[in-house]
Design brief:
single chain, 304 residues, alpha/beta, Spore Coat Polysaccharide Biosynthesis Protein SpsA, Chain A, eight-stranded mixed sheet, three-stranded mixed sheet, 13 helices
């Protein structure tokens, strides 16, 4: 039987972008089986507009912001479909038959947990006219603005850590998927248009959350023996990025370190390390995608 497909969007005070995205989704053929929107602490009338103009959309309202991660967790738990497509409020499918393409990808790949789609995005203008995005291959992370996720795997693996609030949930989840023998693939049979609006975006704040959450992920997932070295490597790499962005970024980098320290008790309570062999293979996968099926099976064998 063909898998059911939902589309899930978390939004915060970007009503105009959401209007455009829901308009595109309304024209998909076939239509998704469900569309769910989490209005996360919106004060711009998003919830009222969705109720009035898209009554078929399942709307989740948070009077106070819970963060994009908690919102995506809630949407993933509430949807009833086999697959849910994760989009931003400013991203939407390009192909009219996008839902059919997603169904085929997952029907043809029973061990696929996450399909990450190419994005034509204003963040990288060269992608807007790129003729093609190459062949599908295995990857170690993805973007929630353009991905489809097998809901049963999302449930079984445990979803995202709510306390991350925003950033780094994707590599943390992808690590747990590949460690459990599930596939994460860059699938070029469908594409997403991402306008990447600047509204409600703060680059430095996002970087600091990313740096903090990356260290939290290391504390939760890395085996104890290798944990100190991996944590120092990750912190140094993030500090190096901040230095390259300039003095104002570098002097504020300790903010992410102190935030990491405050979260240690919560991370220890949620600690579930994966085997070092797979953790190391995943770190290498982040830099070097795998294009050969035999190589993937050798490094990430499925062990029921």
């Amino acid at each position: 039987m063909s898998p059911r497909v939902a589309i899930c969007i978390a939004t915060h005070n970007r009503r105009d972008e959401l209007i455009r995205t829901l308009g595109v989704l309304a024209g998909l053929d076939p239509a998704p089986d469900e569309v769910l929107v989490a209005a996360d602490g919106c004060t711009d009338g998003t919830d009222e507009w969705v109720r009035k103009n898209h009554p078929g959309v399942r709307l989740v309202i948070h009077p106070q912001p819970h963060g994009s991660i908690a919102s995506r967790n809630e949407l993933g738990a509430l949807c009833e479909s086999d697959i849910f497509v994760s989009l931003d409020d400013d991203s939407y499918p390009i192909e009219r038959d996008f839902v059919a393409r997603v169904r085929k990808i997952f029907a043809d790949n029973p061990r696929l947990a996450i399909a990450s789609f190419p994005q034509r995005t204003d963040e990288y203008p060269e992608t807007l006219s790129q003729p093609d995005f190459g062949e599908p291959h295995f990857i170690g992370s993805y973007a929630n603005s353009a991905a489809a996720i097998r809901r049963s795997t999302f449930r079984d693996i445990g979803g995202y850590p709510d306390f991350f609030f925003h950033a780094y949930e994707e590599p943390d989840f992808a690590l747990r998927c590949v460690a459990a023998g599930w596939e994460v693939r860059y699938e070029t049979a469908a594409t997403v248009r991402h306008h990447f609006t600047a509204t409600e975006r703060n680059e430095m704040r996002t970087h600091q959350r990313h740096a903090r959450n990356e260290l939290w992920s290391v504390l939760m997932r890395c085996p104890l023996l290798q944990l100190p070295a991996v944590a120092v490597f990750r912190a140094a790499r993030q500090f190096g990025y901040a230095c390259r962005r300039g003095f104002a970024w570098a002097v504020r980098e300790p903010k992410s370190w102190f935030a990491f320290l405050r979260g240690i008790p919560r991370c220890l309570a949620a600690r579930a390390p994966v085997p070092w062999r797979r953790y190391l293979a995943w770190m290498r996968l982040l830099r070097n995608p795998i294009r050969d099926r035999a190589e993937w099976d050798a490094k990430f064998p499925f062990e029921p």
